[in-house]
Amino acid sequence: MIVSPLHLKPLKLGSVIGVVAPAGQLDEQNLAKAVAYLTSNGYRVVYGDAIFRKHGYLAGTDEERADDINTMFQRRDIDAIFCACGGYGSPRIASLLNYSLIKKHPKIFWGYSDITFLHVAIQQLTGLTTFHGPMLSSDLGTETRQDELKELLAWLRAPSALIYLAEEILFHGTAHGKLIGGNLSLLVSSLGTPYEVDTDGAILFIEEIDEEPYVIDRLLNQLKLAGKFAKVSAVILGHFNNCVAKNGRLSFTLNDLFIQHIVPVGKPILAGFNVGHCEPNDPMPIGAFCEVNTYDKTVVIKNPFTHD
């Protein structure tokens, strides 16, 4: 589905930030620390009604969690929506979101990990650029990451192009296209659903956590068999946190798997970015225009708040 990009407004001092928990249950102490930082720096914070609820391992029922997101988009006083944490549960609410409402009231939507499923669904069905980045409870509520939160807020107030440098090149070339991607497991879980990730002509980025190489092998193979790598313009490999073989079992390395599954496609592949379950976790605007050049190891993402 081809949809036109939507205009986003940057944050400003005094902006109202809505906080939601679309998936698992949050760490209340870490959330309180992050919110205290936001309020002490001139922002107002509004919690979703279900944010502290518990329903099994979820933060409220599917309907409650989806209603919080729909309400935050509908409210005209809310300038941005930050997810508190990931975990599990975002795919369960994709069919309950009001995409026509989201398209009518575009605003910053921020999160990563399990939130990947919602990023893909929202971006592809509405044209809204959403933001893959660290979350308030699971990441930014810790004291070691206050500088990261400060930098993210400064960028959201005065956004510009993002320029990242690769540590490693697996296949050379240049490319451009729409940035799409996120957590590898969640991208694979979108296959065969109405929210299936569309990689046609896109710059695809992937990251993962706590999966052994044989699981990464399976996930990459599924994307390959679904034709997702064949359609991309380029691939960006983010952080694969603790994705190592356990108990001394024989294994391929992650690079072995990237070479086996992605390199044969013959598209530019850049690796070694602080994207995903890492510190810092650099922002990736999903839906923004992106250019990659392996010869100078650059990824340049256009300012997502402009469409010039």
Automatic annotation (TrEMBL):
Gene3D superfamilies: Class I glutamine amidotransferase-like, LD-carboxypeptidase A C-terminal domain-like. GO terms for molecular function: carboxypeptidase activity; serine-type peptidase activity. Transmembrane segments: none annotated. Residues 17-133 form the LD-carboxypeptidase N-terminal domain. GO terms for biological process: proteolysis. Keywords: Carboxypeptidase, Hydrolase, Protease, Serine protease. It comes from the Bacteria. Signal peptide: none annotated. CDD domains: Peptidase_S66. The active site is at S113, E207, H277. InterPro entries: Carboxypeptidase_A_C_sf (IPR027461), Class_I_gatase-like (IPR029062), LdcA_N (IPR027478), Peptidase_S66_N (IPR040449), Peptidase_S66C (IPR040921), S66_fam (IPR003507). Residues 177-292 form the LD-carboxypeptidase C-terminal domain. Belongs to the peptidase S66 family. PANTHER family: MURAMOYLTETRAPEPTIDE CARBOXYPEPTIDASE, MUREIN TETRAPEPTIDE CARBOXYPEPTIDASE. This is LD-carboxypeptidase. It comes from Salipaludibacillus agaradhaerens.
